[in-house]
# Entry
Amino acid sequence: MERVYNFLTHRISPKILRTGYEPLEEDNVNSSIMSMAASVNQEFVAKKTPQYLVSFIVSIGAFSHGTSIGWSAPALPNMEKQGDFPGFKSDSNMATWLDGMFLLRLLHWLPVTAHWKEMDYACARSPFFNRLAAQAKIRGTLCNAIGLAIGLGILFTYILGSIISWSHLSLVNAFFPGIFTVGVFFIPESPYYLLANGRIEETLESLKSLRGATEEEQIIPEYFSKKISVQHRKEATWSDTLAAYVLKPFGICMMLIIFQQFGGIKGVLFYSVEMFSYAGTDVNANIAAITLAGAQVIVLLASTQTVEIWGRRISIMVSELGMTISLVALGTFFYLKEHNEDIRLEWLPLTSLLFYVLSYNLGVGPVTWTLVSELLPSNSKGLTSSIIAAFSHGLAFLITKFFIDMQKLFTSYGCYWFFAAMSFAGFVFCLVVIPETKGKKLQDIQAFFRK
# Structure
């Protein structure tokens, strides 16, 4: 390590090794660096296994998050059935607080936002860590694994919740955060974060661990590639953050989050078992909810391909339109039911919700966050993405907390028709406002907003 460290600190000028974000002035400096880096490389091919292992550990946290999302659907009816809490059934307010409590991660994002400069590299969110630690050729797969892990967590909880009591389900779900907490101690720090803070030796050790290298010289080319990327980043000031080229994509991303959350996905997933029971269909409520979660996992796998075929904009538009149709159908079913119409449409609630979940996970769910990462300028992404994440969790909490109140205020069918109207508004917004980012370089996207 000492020999490599001397190579880095003595053969390269101090300007190249500084951790500031000022850009390099001459292109031939970059080519000179890469030539020297190649001279010490031993035709090394990085191993994928260490990166998959890191992604697996990170995905345990996402799986745990999925179990939290899915917990209330089987747990609340089970609480009412067992009568563990006297008066629980009549106190729907208590149930909504149980549903929404874990979504109060808004408070978690306040200190993150306060340290937004560090967030440029030390991103706490799983997809961003995978994006920073993985090689480009497998980065997309590892980032998409996060959404899949969340879906698997929901499916796992639905299945287990139909078999065991709510208390045992809670104990089982508490096991996964513990595994994740232990696992993160074995994950190397992001090389970008270490580089940004001038920790050269630790950067080399991190890259060596992530790439399965046996010699430090083997990862020198990648080290310099990341070093140049860090140096070309210009630190954003508050005036830069308030500039039009930042506010425009920031506003678009905020609107995308509004349409995503007001599509009603959290309320539908949290209360799926109760909704099927109320619908009075012949299908067992737990089986229907499990089918819903299973379909979500399947379409999450498919969405990794469709987003590259259709593009971001079309994916979200198709998704919003599908959600609109299914929510209108679901609202129509409850309208006929509540007006005592003699209908033979017991198949409609499950079919509509299946189509709704498939549509959501085809675009609005995963692709919204892809657009957020692509539209926001890189030099202000730490602050703006933190605000957007806090806003998203805040809206999710409000919708979950007041979902039952909305049903009482608007009736069940009115609530679903409201979500349908918001989904259609999201379709129109994407049609008119959203630019296509598929295949475009990040600098080209940023140049679009600077016009």
User: Anything to note?
Assistant: The domain at 238-451 is CATH 1.20.1250.20 (Growth Hormone; Chain: A;). DSSP finds 24 helices and no strands in the chain. The chain has two domains: 1-17+43-233, 238-451.
